[in-house]
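Anyone able to model this chain together with fe (ii) ion?
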Amino acid sequence: MAMLEALQAAPVSSNARTDVSALSVSNQTGYRAFKAGGFEFRRDEYFARLSWPGGTHIMPIDVFLRAMMRDVAWGFFYGAVNFDSVFGTINHYGEVTMFAGRFNGAYVAASRNYEERFSSAALMGVFKEILSDWTNSGYDPFAAPMETGTPWGTKNGGNDDAITRQRVTAKRMVGLPGDTPVRTDETGFPVNRQFADVEQDQPLVECEPGFEHEVSGFNLFGYLSRSDVTWNPSVCSVVGESLFCPTSEEFILPVEHGNDRCEWFLQLSDEITWDVKDKETGKPRARVLMRAGDICCMPADIRHQGYSTKRSMLLVWENGASKIPQMIAEGTAPVVPVEF
Ligand SMILES: [Fe+2]
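re: yes, here you go
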């Protein structure tokens, strides 16, 4: 789920849009409006208000900001990030499509869907500006609702410390020399209130002299118990294209993720309920209850959104190979991991 930096470095075609800009500040609300291609973004006390040639859309501002936080932090992610049933982005790894109604069966049937393709760098720039301007002091769109303030009201300061957290992207594995470090109280990662019972000891690794940089281990449960954000799968180990992206989850996955490849979920603790829908139309396909120890694979032709009341631990296992979306689109790779 979390992207390797290399996947983001694809070349940009000459016709990808780069026309993004900040518009004026509203005298009524204090919030700035923004423009990206034909899309315009405005917020008021309760809502994000979007418009594009031929359509408009309204989203509750908390839903919009939580989704925008993930789209920014994940670098547009794999496949489609549906902020809701209408608006979202599709990652082409170097370029990104912003759409309205593209994955909504009713919009498509009525030919009311609309999309534009941008350079990823240009769209990311304005998305970061929107997130910064529209996030008020005391509100953290990365946090669980019970661990932050509220996003409502007119413009009131900002919270750039919360929305510019660096996402973990281990090059080999958490804890190896020169790689992303394990989390501790001292480095600003206290144990979360809902993981107070998680053991915090670390494995003792005794390796042959000369292999200190190659052999390592860390307490993954302890590491996840100290995550300060929710629904933020981060690369914690890499073997070739195999990426382990564990994360801690509370409340709702703020986006409906439309997969462009198969994606394995290993429920490490507690439970998550998943709504699984058709990727293209949004029609319901399944509801999956995963309890600790359960493993499932989300197919490549679905979108999914999860619900977790008690903060839980989830290991997301990705094949990061950049050729997979094209192979699935061409039909040379299956949309499921195994066929019986
Ligand atoms: Fe997914």
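Residues 25 and 32 are 4 Å apart (CA to CA).
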